[in-house]
Write a structure and sequence with these properties.
- The protein is built from 19 helices and 20 strands.
- By secondary structure, it is an alpha/beta fold.
- The protein has 2 domains: 292 residues, Carbon-nitrogen hydrolase (Nitrilase/N-carbamoyl-D-aminoacid amidohydrolase, 4-Layer Sandwich), CATH 3.60.110.10; 318 residues, HUPs (Rossmann fold, 3-Layer(aba) Sandwich).
- The strands form 4 sheets. Strands 13-12-11-10-9-8-15 form a 7-stranded mixed beta sheet, covered by helices on one side. A 6-stranded mixed beta sheet has the order 5-4-3-2-1-14. It has a 5-stranded parallel beta sheet with strand order 18-17-16-19-20.
- The two termini are 18 Å apart.
- The relative contact order is 0.08.
């Protein structure tokens, strides 16, 4: 529960229809097992104490009283469990019968939530037995407790302020305006759904999309439990298709006709932040809700949910290809609009033989094709200097030739040495002036070529470099349109790989493959016998770590200590804790100190959920101090 994680479970124990004592035994066993595993919220199916398929037995006083007695047994035998549970029971109240969820914790019944929309169509005939929930909350005496009765109930954990539970039942989710909409507007962050959804062809897919979609729309955790083995199969079959979703993503699932058990951790602090961040999500005044405290102690939650090492890159091959194609289209369309609007005659790209300039060139070529203009209107310029190796220079030229763009090679060593002479810089001193003088010299050439040809300079720097400030101010930092500005380094690599895989030109695919295999380097320090001596990731750190940190620091606003927890969980075995801590600290120090470069960055298209444009997603003063974040990292 530290860092905002709530471990939840959904369970569908084997039952016997109308055998309350047998069913209670299964429920109690699963509650104890879940609690021992760190679960602090468990949800059982609709009418799980007696079975959903009791039919006209629901009219039998013996069954209704038996369910109440059985819930009392469950309360007594689980009184020591530090956990909230939602259990389905039929409840007779004010001369009507209701299909209810009993919310219990530490042996106490906290509330009874009746179903709002009992279905009465096709195979469902609930209105034969159950009344719809009343419009307003009431009180009800049940199993020895007098508790709130009604749909407008919240169950709040004071020790974990971001965790507030609300409940709806099965069909309630399937209607045009589910009760959960009101629940989240009243403050609920987790919705429990007790269901008995029978299985038919295609229903699992729809159910899955319904649950994930509702969790996304409501920015909540959604815990869905469905009836399974043991229900009557006279006319329908139940599959225990249980789901746990968070903000549009399925975290865990019990596949139909499987074990019926799903466990995961919902990040309620992240949900709260997302709601705070999205100004369109506000809590209007919602009247009539009762809030019940959940007495649950805070514990350390052991994560079982998996975080991708590359949060910007889809893991599924088909999804990744689709993402890469979409990003290429977005970049190219953005550049095409800019070229068209200012009537630019050329797109000038500085091509180094590295990943970023390769992607920028591919985008520029596609933009010209979108405009039905000759690819030769793209002017690719390579500018070898002291650190340029034959491999990168050769790959740059081969790439341009394969794409049929215009090519120019301008050796800037003489110009750079002349400049060094002007400012009294020794060419033997490989300091920051030595490096940045080359970077600014290249930009100087590109800008003038753009003026000469009536074009614009297309920027090559990526999102990861912007975050770290890994760019020479007014050197490669500057352009007239930065097409890669919101594409992180880990994704740049996959886009180029996708382009290579789909290229019809074998020679193009080959050169793209070699560019992908070339170490990332600015090549600003002298080469050692034509070998690259300056490796970017040795200096600023591995990009896979920085992109991971970038996503959770900016997109999710996680604290450094929470990000460190995820780094350890995700990269254990490849990096030790001290190494992870080192690069985490390095990220924050660079991110804060280099904001001044982002404050004046060129225009560029936003393609993902993380962008650092000062005109769009990220507004930060250049003089902000990193001390609080650094102090937190030092305590790790």
């Amino acid at each position: 529960m530290k860092y905002g994680y709530l471990k939840v479970a959904v369970a569908s124990p084997d039952i016997r229809v109308a055998d309350c004592d047998f069913n209670a035994t299964g429920i109690i066993e699963q509650m104890k097992t879940a609690h021992a595993g760190g679960v602090r919220l468990i949800v059982f199916p609709e009418l799980s104490v007696c079975g959903y398929t009791c039919g006209d037995l629901f009219f039998q006083q013996t069954l209704i009283e038996g369910c109440e007695t059985t819930l009392g047994r469950i309360l007594r035998e689980t009184a020591e469990l530090d956990m909230a549970s939602c259990i389905g029971v039929p409840v007779r109240h004010n001369d009507a019968l209701y299909n209810c969820a009993a919310v219990i914790c530490r042996g106490k019944l906290l509330g009874l939530v009746p179903k709002s929309f009992p279905p009465n169509y096709s195979e469902f005939y609930e209105l034969r037995h159950f009344a719809p929930a009343p419009k307003h909350n009431d009180t009800c005496s049940y199993a020895g407790f007098t508790v709130p009765f009604g749909t407008k109930q919240l169950f709040h954990m004071p020790q974990m302020p971001n965790f507030t539970l609300a409940v709806e039942l099965c069909e309630d989710l399937w209607v045009p305006l589910p009760p959960s909409v009101g629940h989240v507007l009243a403050g609920a962050t987790v919705i429990a759904n007790l269901s008995a959804s029978n299985e038919i062809i295609g229903k699992a897919e729809y159910r899955r999309s319904l649950v994930s979609g509702q969790s996304g729309r409501l920015i909540c955790g959604y815990v869905y439990a469905s009836a399974g083995f043991g229900e009557s199969t006279s006319d329908v079959v139940f599959a225990a298709h249980n789901l746990i979703a968070e903000n549009g993503v399925i975290l865990a699932e019990a596949e139909p006709f499987g074990t019926g058990l799903a466990v995961s951790e919902i990040d309620v602090s992240m949900l709260s932040h997302e709601r705070c961040h999205l100004t369109s999500f506000r809590h209007p005044a919602v009247d009539g809700y009762t809030t019940n405290p959940l007495d649950i102690d805070m514990i350390e939650t052991i994560l079982t949910r998996r975080y991708s090492r590359h949060p910007f890159v889809p893991e599924n091959t088909a999804d990744r290809a689709q993402r890469c194609e979409l990003i290429l289209s977005m970049q190219a369309n953005g550049l095409a609009k800019r070229l068209s609007h200012i009537k630019a005659k050329t797109a000038v790209v500085g091509i180094s033989g590295g990943l970023d300039s390769c992607l920028a060139l591919l985008v520029a070529v596609r933009a010209m094709k979108l405009l039905s203009r000759p690819v030769s209107d793209v002017l690719a310029v390579t500018m070898p200097c002291f650190g340029t190796t034959s491999r990168t220079r050769s790959n740059a030229e081969k790439l341009v030739n394969c794409l049929d763009a215009s090519f120019s090679c301008i050796d800037i060593r003489g110009t750079t040495l002349s400049h060094f002479g002007d400012i009294g810089q020794s060419p033997d001193n490989s300091d920051v002036v030595f490096e940045n003088g080359q970077a600014r010299g290249r930009t100087y050439v590109l800008m003038d070529l753009a003026n000469k040809t009536g074009g614009i300079v297309v920027g090559t720097g990526d999102l990861s470099e912007l975050a770290l400030g890994w760019a020479t101010y007014n050197g490669d930092h500057m352009s007239m349109y930065g097409v890669n500005a919101s594409v992180p380094k880990t994704l740049v690599r996959h886009i180029i790989s996708y382009y290579a895989d789909t290229a019809e030109n074998h020679e193009l695919a080959t050169v793209l493959g070699d560019i992908l295999a070339t170490p990332v380097s600015p090549e600003l320090l002298p080469a050692d016998e034509d070998n690259i001596t300056q490796l970017t990731e040795d200096i600023v750190g591995p990009y896979e770590l920085h992109d991971f940190i970038l996503y959770y620091a900016i997109r999710r606003s996680f604290t450094p200590s929470k990000i460190f927890k995820l780094l350890v969980a995700s990269f254990d075995g490849d990096y030790d804790r001290e190494t992870l801590k080192k690069w985490l600290a390095n990220f924050y120090i660079r991110f804060f100190s280099q904001q001044f470069k982002r404050s004046c960055m060129p225009d560029g298209p936003k393609v993902g959920s993380v962008a650092l444009s000062p005109r769009g997603d990220w507004r930060m003063p250049s003089d902000a101090v990193v001390a609080l974040w650094h102090e937190e990292i030092e305590k790790l």
